[in-house]
Structure prediction request, 265 residues.
Amino acid sequence: MESVGERIARLKRERNAVILVHNYCLPEVQDVADYVGDSLGLSVKATQTDADVIVFCGVTFMAETAKILNPGKTVLIPDAAAVCAMAQMCSPEQIVAAREANPGREVVGYVNSTAACKAEMDVCCTSSNAVDIVSSLESSGAIFVPDRNLGTYAAGRCPSKDVVLWDGFCPIHQSISVQQVQELKAAHPDAEVLAHPECRSEVLDLADVIGSTEKMLNHCRASERDGFIVLTEVGMRHRLEANCPGKRFYFPEHAVCGAMKMATL
Ligand code: SF4
Prediction:
């Protein structure tokens, strides 16, 4: 009888499919992936594949992004109820109203948003390039949607820009507190602190390195340190441990995104 892994491999061959998995997904799902990465990295991979079918294990806005980049391909998501809570905090109608209330400002949107919202933006950014995108705007004013934390981080590094912030946030990163970080630092005083810019600004102030999960991985690979406090969703531990043997990673263990765990084998 076929195992689940064998059945997945056979279906992949039969459908000429590629499996893209976000690094917050379950470890066993990451292990059957053709590519594991963050939303930007996976979007780039999606444009490079010659597969007919893209199976996108993540949340719905990521599968939508893969479809935008590959309109001729079939894009499947294992569970269409896997919705990002932050992406739900902004609607296209609200963006239109905000634009009318703030004439002359360009709308910069984080990729963590629905396709309908993206259609109302002037430019879309990721956590990796938010600062570069805001600093490169032609106008001096912007509206940043939907993540107020990433918007605050980008605006703070672009002092010539006047940025109106949306009131959205990732509940997982928002829940990481200064006290939790201080407790992790006290328990692991030699560890470097890496933080995702979706965290609150007072948490980012405690970090040695701020960046996307891809930047975190590259930093941990290159660093001579062997211990890291990682302020992002706990699913990232699997990829870090697989790519950095012998190094230790400490997470705020409550930082679990239910939507990212909905894709199962
Ligand atoms: S971790 Fe946060 S931003 Fe990422 S999918 Fe979950 S709710 Fe959305």
Q: What stands out?
A: Residues 24, 59, 84-86, 112, 170-172, 233, 257, 259-260 surround iron/sulfur cluster (CB under 6 Å). Residues 172-255 form a domain with the Rossmann fold fold (CATH 3.40.50.10800). The longest helix spans residues 4-15. The mean pLDDT is 96.
